[in-house]
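step 4 of 6: structure.
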Amino acid sequence: MSRTPLDTVEHAAETPDVELPWAELGLKKDEYERVVEILGRRPTGAELAMYSVMWSEHCSYKSSKVHLKQFGEKAPQSDALLVGIGENAGVVDVGQGYAVTFKVESHNHPSYVEPYQGAATGVGGIVRDIIAMGARPVAVVDPLRFGAADHPDTKRVLPGVVAGIGGYGNCLGLPNIGGEVVFDACYQGNPLVNAGAIGVMRHEDIHLAKASGAGNKVILYGARTGGDGIGGASILASETFDDAKPSKRPAVQVGDPFQEKLLIECTLEAFAEKLVVGIQDLGAAGLSCATSELASNGSGGMRVTLDDVPLRDSTLSPEEILMSESQERMCAVVEPEKVDRFLEICDKWDVIATVIGEVTDGDRLEIYWHGGKIVDVDPRTVAHDGPVYERPYARPSWQDALQADDANKLPRPATSDELKDQVLKLVGSPNQASKSWITSQYDHFVQGNTVLAQPEDSGMIRIDEESGLGVAIATDGNGRYTKLDPYHGAQLALAEAYRNVATTGAKPLAVSDCLNFGSPEDPAVMWQFAEAIRGLADACQQLGTPVTGGNVSLYNQTGEAAIHPTPVVAVLGVIDDVARRTPVAFQEEGQLLYLLGETREEFGGSAWSQVVHDHLGGLPPQVDLERERLLGEILISASRDGMIDSAHDLSDGGLVQAVVESALLGGKGARLVVPDGLDAFTFLLSESAGRAIVAIPRSEEVRFNDMCGARGLPVTRIGVVDGDAVEVQGEFTLTLAELRTAHEGTIPALLA
Amino acid sequence: MTARIGVVTFPGSLDDRDTQRAIKLAGAEPVALWHKDKDLKQVDAVVLPGGFSYGDYLRTGAISRFSPVMETVIEQAKSGMPVLGICNGFQILTEAHLLPGGMLGNDHLHFICRDQKLRVENADTAWTVDYESGQEIHVPLKNMDGRYVADERTLDMLEAEGRVAFRYVDFNPNGSLRDIAGITNEAGNVVGLMPHPEHAVEPLIGSGRTDGLPFFTSILKKLVNA
């Protein structure tokens, strides 16, 4: 029996002509040649594994990097930013010595292949990013997009995704406080499963992913390493689905939330005792990523003995160990004299922990297997010097025709009865309907600090029990708007999330984004991507909310058909005292309803145009960021000074959607009067941005009007909270019972 | 002098801190207990909190029931120490045979999280004296395996002896037999229920109600007056 010799560095140097499967591992020819050039020889199998996975689109951002840098270049001056783009997650100062870290990521492709595990491990991954910053995770949010609600495959994907998110997040003890669920045929073969998390720490507890101090030990802890997810990052995330290829099911990782819960507690205990110099979670690209990033961000090199990695499957090759994406693993750098205590804490929590290497004073990452050196690289070339592509981009030829197909010219309801029917159809349509069948599968009470959770405009968590300090988060993204105009569509996503945070009374501070697009190899998609980033970066600059990090998901495309460009924007805000928060639900009959902002005839990309006419065309609503800022200031002041008892942002579905939601949540109806200068249809269904409705106790009306007048925000009194119906005077009346049946029955009927 | 109430942390416990907060808000002193430690630190009562101890693997509560701490809890409960099991804690109490019956997966097969209406059927237990018998309260419920089951004879016995402590009202969220949400042992010192009273103790937080606080004031009253 012959044995293949171990492919050591020495062996590689001696056998330059050995063919390696670089193409199968996802590298392009010129990328492989660049690896050879960097090393001055052919790579070993293990080195090839590392470069291929770290240089994949998913890990290297090779197509997006040239555009993403705008978030840094245009970053607004912000005193709040403690850690910016480039770390596991951004960190924001929220006052009173607290820092908050948050991030949104995608797990789109795995969730289509295996909905439950794909979505579950998406939660697991984002939560480890938060722990790796030194923070205790306090909440998660899940922005989700699926194909048509009545498509048979949606019934396969959605329940699995929701159960996976719940199964993992609930078991971790993290309240799920926000997110979205959107249906559109464009996501049929490419559902978007984004996951966000928030963590809280004291300023002095911020940790970074770097290995410094020669002699310090590298400890791998958490689950054993198995064969799951091997090549997941390079293969799954970087190729378009194609029916002809074999099933990729085994490439999706399997999660164990119980293990992750232990990992959280044990890591936080180690942080509390100041045992950790640097830390990195193992996500995409597993040990390849963790070792190369820790080493390249630190001051020295690193030596790792791969034989010491605890395995679940003893037959794994060193290449597989380096690429494995087994979940629930972390890597810590610990001073030698603190190693014993660190291992003791892991033992207390029954977490396996092993010293696998140490920081060296060189500048190489060296990895050994069975006594042979199988990796000897400059870690920076693996982690940071990946290829950068200036992909060609061009405004698609169909964009003009799409914008010319004006939704404002669609036939409108001719009679009050027709208007009433369309309103009822709208509030019961899958996108506008109540999502409580989904959100009731998530725990939103655990940890005992949840102030607001979906369907509120933003989720809100108390972070200090004494002072009442809290944070709020909202995620938004309208793919229809962005398809019509990527630059402004991305800005509208930010504007809506910003408005949602302000509506609950919190001051918007910072942004994380998850940019979901089609194939970067299509110039039309690349144009959408470039325009969306330019729009978002400009808007963040104007609103003073820096992007602190996020994630890019490309290749969301089946064949030639790309998804709508879908930048999902998360805005984090702070509120001094959560007792001042403003809920969506109407609180008391007799309170006055005011519309803040201006209503124009804007139906491009609207829910009405989709539900009634199955139409997408024209231009999205105008963006006025100064107006958004002013509206935000008014909502925050009104909340702080106790002038309003409820408020709701106006977005998709327009004013009538917002009124119906506030009425159903509060169990109190409303009588509305169409204001002068507006027709009932436009008043109820236009989606003009920069608007909100508020309910004001009569005693506060004068003070509120004075404040808005002084600051120049147009406001209109539109009615009163009253009765058990939504009545639009002179037009129609819909009882709360009718509305509730339509609004709450849709999703269970489709999916339960 | 106030009462010392222990809260056990098992691996995978989630609502241990929340329960400690609720105990504090009621005016008692919360004491953290660790599953590997048999020592109950001289507490006057013990709460087994909610969560997914040991990941709910094998069967909910089945592994935790064998924790070192449970040896002492079982022994002390039998000699009258008040014990409250919430959700996963209730599951552990049935696995430990301190309470009869057991829990199966929800009949609709989904995790469910909602503000649940309950009726207090027995206001004489160590954990319910601050309620009125028949009082209706709202307390959050969140579980995957909340369907209470027992054989007919046991159910009849529980009913006859007034040991059904809480019943779901208007909506049975998991298919529990006879709408049972919580039960007590014969002596009234051991109580278990699926809903989470510790999530209903502050007006601003969670469900926005304080209907769960009397659990913790009840035990305080009981212990301090004892």
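step 5 of 6: annotate
 - Chain B touches chain A through 32 residues (CB under 8 Å).
 - The domain at 4-225 of chain B is CATH 3.40.50.880 (Rossmann fold).
step 6 of 6: archive
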